Amino acid sequence: AQKVTQAQTEISVVEKEDVTLDCVYETRDTTYYLFWYKQPPSGELVFLIRRNSFDEQNEISGRYSWNFQKSTSSFNFTITASQVVDSAVYFCALSNNAGNMLTFGGGTRLMVKP
Amino acid sequence: GAVVSQHPSRVICKSGTSVKIECRSLDFQATTMFWYRQFPKQSLMLMATSNEGSKATYEQGVEKDKFLINHASLTLSTLTVTSAHPEDSSFYICSARPLAGFVNYGYTFGSGTRLTVV
Known about the structure:
The complex is a heterodimer of chains A (114) and B (118). Chain A is an all-beta fold and 114 residues long. Chain A has strands spanning 3-5, 10-14, 19-21, 24-26, 32-39, 46-52, 59-61, 64-69, 74-79, 88-96, 102-104, 108-113. In chain A, 0% of the residues lie in helices and 54% in strands. In chain A, the strands form three sheets. In chain A, strands 2, 5, 6, 10, 11 and 12 form a six-stranded mixed β-sheet that branches. With 118 residues, chain B is mainly beta. In chain B, strands 2, 4, 5, 6, 9, 10 and 11 form a seven-stranded mixed β-sheet that branches. Chain B has a four-stranded antiparallel β-sheet with strand order 1-3-8-7, with no helix packed on it. In chain B, strand 7 (67-73) and strand 8 (76-81) form a beta hairpin. The model of chain B has no long low-confidence stretch (mean pLDDT 91).
């Protein structure tokens, strides 16, 4: 069974602050994929990143960075110098190797205030 | 890039009527499509998985006679909510997994359908 836990249901920050969204996962698979998606108020899911279980390198993309720690089963997401446009719900998700099962965490609602 | 078109984006229907939602992969073939439901301020919950040419697999608690899924081709899957009731009001979103290989392409999501049953 797969499980994804996003302990933070809501986070509120002021613009330009850094913010980290936590994600902890459980799986019995040795090969799996982790994802982060952004869901703005319009509802569509915006793909942010996919990481496979064998690649523990941290990744940076502009103001976004991800820290994958296999030892603690965590895949945290940091936004540096947050902006109002970053306000959205962010989902962490876990897929098995075959890609026929994608499990979402409960989501974290991020509010960035001007 | 891979695009999934989902229609309609919004629909309001009367209680007791049926509503069909289409999910179409525009530039790739999808062996598998997933249908999710999302209630306000909640996460996405998988309703069913459909494979082209075969019956859909429904998650526990999802009524297959109420939520009819058809995946007749590698580019089109439809979800029909039959005899809709106000409690079926929700955001429905589909996702497609490409035939070419999940490893390289991952999932592609439609833009979602907001269903309101009055």
